[in-house]
Amino acid sequence: MSALTVTDLPLPGLKRIERRIHGDARGFLTRLFCAEALAAAGFTHPVAAINHTFTATRGTVRGMHFQRPPHAEIKLVSCIRGEVWDVAVDLRHDSPTFLRWHAERLSAANGRALLIPEGCAHGFQTLADDCELVYAHSHAYVPAAEGGVRPDDPALAITWPLPIVGLSPRDQSHPPLTGDFPGIVLTLPRETAAPR
Predict the structure, then answer these.
(1) Half-sphere exposure of 25 toward its Cβ, with a 13 Å CA cutoff?
(2) What is the Cβ-side half-sphere exposure of residue 16, based on CA atoms within 13 angstroms?
(3) Architecture, CATH, for domain 4-176
(4) How much is the pTM?
């Protein structure tokens, strides 16, 4: 049996990754990343950065964040302590699921991760105190390419399991989406882009 099981989710390119946990009386071992299995699932670029977050208070929402092309990124999000409601929003202008969202419960206990494709915003809500997440990113963070949408934007109508607390000033400052929001236009993948 593979160390990682990949399941397609309702947004194109969004995948649930389930890890096989090998445990005994001493503890456990699980694979967080496997380049071969994840390339087949859509993580086709090298890992450019790995981030670790800690969120102290249950109900806290972080997000919804993305990077604009040509710095759009694929993310692999894993919860290594506690439990979160992890959300992806499809912002790709030509997607059949444009402005739709999908959420998964990720926890240290269930061994699940979310593989989020380029052109999607990402955020989460903690369902317990003291949650930790690890993110693998396909592209380095570029402040000038950063974007976001409000997690409580009526145009998205995300169903958060708990009342939202702890929203940062930055996440509160994103303007509401309007009918003329163009979405994200993705460029050709970097390895297949035409020469200039």
Answers:
(1) 0
(2) 16
(3) Sandwich (2.60)
(4) 0.89
**C-alpha–C-alpha distance, residues 92 and 33, integer Å:** 26
How far is residue 48's CA from residue 33's CA, in Å, rounded to a whole number?
13
Q: How far apart are CA 67 and CA 89, in angstroms?
A: 13
Ordered strands of the 112-116 beta sheet = 4-8, 15-19, 112-116, 75-81, 131-137, 49-55
- pLDDT given for residue 188 in this prediction: 53
CA distance 155 to 181: 11
Residues of the chain with pLDDT under 70: 1-2, 188-196
Which residues are tagged catalytic? 65, 135
Tell me the residue type at 95.
Answer: S
Rounded Cα gap, residues 121 and 96, in angstroms: 16
At residue 102, the pLDDT reads 98
Phi, psi of 189 (to 5 degrees): -55, 145
pLDDT at 194: 44
Domain boundaries, the chain: 4-176
Two structure tokens written together for 158: 């995300």
